[in-house]
């Protein structure tokens, strides 16, 4: 079912926190979109570590990266999908899917997200009641 999710507003950089990405993207290289909602849970890595995988992209303070360990990562079609964490038994959206290694699904590459806490004020100012 669908319901509102709380926006993560904490000041932690979330490094080493467990987070779950979900989406309807491809399940393997060159496949179509998934018929079922899929998810992957990994730890958040530092932006410095993420930058080592993406020398051609700007990984900035408003970016949060999910480890690609276990060879499971979001894939093509998962951009815009949520990255969530659980804190004190409550679900929070911590990121919005932004980038990954576009030519491969998996491969151990981290995936990048827009850090929702960096845009919380804008979201508050622009959300509908």
From TrEMBL:
GO terms for biological process: proteolysis. One of its GO terms (molecular function) is serine-type endopeptidase activity. Residues 1-128 form the Peptidase S1 domain. SMART domains: Tryp_SPc (SM00020). PROSITE patterns: TRYPSIN_DOM. Pfam families: Trypsin. This is Peptidase S1 domain-containing protein. It comes from Ignelater luminosus (Cucubano). The lineage of its organism: Eukaryota, Metazoa, Ecdysozoa, Arthropoda, Hexapoda.
């Amino acid at each position: 079912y669908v319901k509102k999710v709380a926006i993560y507003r904490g000041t932690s950089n979330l490094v080493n926190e467990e987070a779950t990405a979900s989406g309807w993207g491809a399940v393997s290289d060159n496949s179509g979109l998934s018929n079922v909602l899929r998810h992957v849970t990994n730890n958040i890595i530092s932006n410095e570590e993420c930058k080592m995988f993406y020398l051609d992209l700007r990984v900035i303070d408003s970016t949060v990266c999910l480890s690609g360990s276990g060879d499971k990562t979001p894939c093509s079609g998962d951009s815009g999908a949520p990255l969530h964490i659980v804190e004190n038994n409550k679900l929070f959206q911590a990121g919005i899917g932004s980038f990954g290694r576009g030519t491969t699904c998996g491969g151990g590459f981290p995936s990048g997200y827009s850090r929702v806490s960096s845009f919380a004020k804008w979201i508050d100012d622009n959300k509908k009641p």
